Amino acid sequence: MKIAAPLRAPDELEPLARAGAGEVFCGVLDLGARPDYFPNGRSQPSANLASFRELEQVAALGRARGVAVMFCANAPQGRVQTGWLKDDILRACAAGVSGIVLADHCLLPWAARQAPGLTLAMGTLSPALNRPTLDLLAGCGAKRVVLERLLTLAEIAGLTAHARGLGLKTEVLIATACVHINAFCHYHQLHARWEGDLQALTRGPYAPCRQPQQIEVWDAGRPLGARAAAAAQPWGFCALCSLPQLQEAGVAYIKVPGRENPIEERLRRVSMVRRCLLDREAGPRLHREFLGRDCSWQDCQHYEVYARRRGES
Amino acid sequence: MTPPGGECALFLRRVPAAGLSPGRLYIGDETCERRLPSEELLAWIEGECPAPHWPLTVATPPLTDSGLALLEGVLRRLSRMRPGGFEVAVNDLGALELLRGFPKAEPVCGRLLAGRYMHFPEFPDEFLDFLAVRGISRVEINSRSQLQTTREQLRSRGLRAHFHWPHMFVAVTRFCAAADGFAGHPRDAIAACSRGCERFTGTYAVGGTELLVCGNALWTKHPGPAQPPEEADRIVSDELMPAPPQLH
Questions:
Q1: DSSP character string of A8-69
Q2: B137 and A CB contact within 8 Å
Q3: Which positions in chain A touch B174 (Cβ < 8 Å)?
């Protein structure tokens, strides 16, 4: 099982590799050239490399260090922007990356023709929740699929077994903080529009759905009163305790998300995942270290792990 | 309600108490696999529906393997009930794959799939090529602006546009607040379902826009005029379930 870590500057490759990353993923964003073009899942310049020259450096460093470098082209695009995205993918191939992360399965056949030796991975914005989706993606040329993060461990194991038969590898996120299915979520885009501030999307982390709101609750049309809650409950979504089971299921990659985080935080997360892979019982202890509190049902990404542990204790 | 030269459909979420007269019926659900057409509703359509010839569309959500198995059963039954054919609005690539085995089912691109491009003025050609290869000639559109800016592009490809009224889809989760979160333990929602969606809804406002927490999804009313857009080839009237409180 390899750890895939987010990278946003060439000099981060070495420390991430030392912390345990076997692969890094990164995007290139130049808002100066095309201010409305966001080619990957992170619209903040600080979460991306600044140029394809930097990507070339990262790819060279990765080859020297034995760390795969995946280029993120993982956001759906319109007609014009898809042309730009294809140009970016060709430039990334020329820069020497190991593979491309895509969001749109419709681009797979084209990418497979353009980059026959590279790993084509479907990212979190192209969710796989079932076996026939894996069949379709494999048929289009995908080599790896990120499984939807809201799946249960049993579902992940079933899909991973099926993927193996198709020659596909699976990847699972280790920590996230959103309850929405990424691929279909319009909350951030619409929220920025409702607030009249589209530029908010390009500034730092933007997670309005995790801000508590006063939600009026209705029971069959009758008001029950207000309660404070966030559209996406701000759970920590820690999956450290699930790592042994994910490993046994044959999941090939563990993705540490958070390109928007400072390098210290990303190193901490990668290091924690590595320690947990080395020590199967370390989950709860590392959880305390990671989130500063004991495991709880709110935090556990795969609730069945927490429920089983609670039943055992 | 009917667009000029177009079609009017009614999203039917339970056996109706009174008479209906839509041009087409929608059944199923776009966001939750636990709300695929019930046995009771299918029996009503088969036996008591006042006009069994009404055209039928089955709306389908993102699906796990378990959900696909349920859908397969529904499709098998509808293939017998409707030998003349029926539509299936798909919001999951796996569901689209499943339809290959059901020649009576005509695939429609659902608004969750098409909505992935809703913040752009045009669909990518590769997406429209994919729809053509899959024999899809109808697309459900999630926003009025997407409908207006893509209408000519869709027409030039021979595609018809559907529009659900009056709600726009915003987001979907498997951790269903309506199932338990409003009255219990939200993290059991994947494993267990209390059908809280048949009772509970939530509302809140962001920047003057009111949001509706209904079932396992977030919705809002389409902004703009109070009437459905004329550009649609079909308007699907859907008040969601339960009927939400009146938003401003």
A1: -SGGGHHHHHHHTEEEEEE-B--TTT-TT---SS---GGGSBS-HHHHHHHHHHHHHHT-EE
A2: no
A3: 150, 179, 181
- Render the burial of A62-76: b for 16+ CB within 10 Å, e for the rest: beebebbbbbbbbbb
**Of A75, A3, A116, the residue nearest B116 (C-alpha):** A75
Q: Shortest Cα distance from B199 to chain A (angstroms)?
A: 5
Give the residue from chain A lying closest to B246, CA to CA.
A221
Chain A residue closest in CA terms to B210: A194
- Would an 8 Å CB–CB cutoff place B119 in contact with chain A? yes
Q: pLDDT of A227-277, one tens digit each?
A: 877 766 645 678 888 999 999 999 999 999 888 889 999 999 999 999 999
Identify whether the C-beta of residue B8 lies closer than 8 Å to the C-beta of residue B234: yes
Per-residue pLDDT tens digits for A79-98? 999 999 999 999 999 999 99
B81: Cα separation from own chain's centroid: 21
ipTM of the prediction: 0.92
CB contact under 8 A, A79 and B181: no
